[in-house]
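Structure in, sequence out. Go:
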């Protein structure tokens, strides 16, 4: 089963501000699901973002 991370966890892993992560979700740059009041980002989506940033 795939693991899901909070915006805070993703921001810490990417070393970015949480507001940047929320902005990217809103812009569609990050695929996320909303569970109640909390956005969650899948492990596969986090890996996709990490791989894209390696290629920049």
């Amino acid at each position: 089963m795939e693991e899901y991370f909070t915006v805070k966890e993703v921001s810490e892993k990417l070393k970015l501000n949480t507001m940047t992560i929320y902005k990217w979700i809103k812009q569609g740059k990050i695929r996320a699901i909303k569970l109640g009041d909390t956005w969650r980002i899948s492990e596969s989506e986090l890996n996709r973002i990490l791989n894209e940033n390696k290629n920049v």
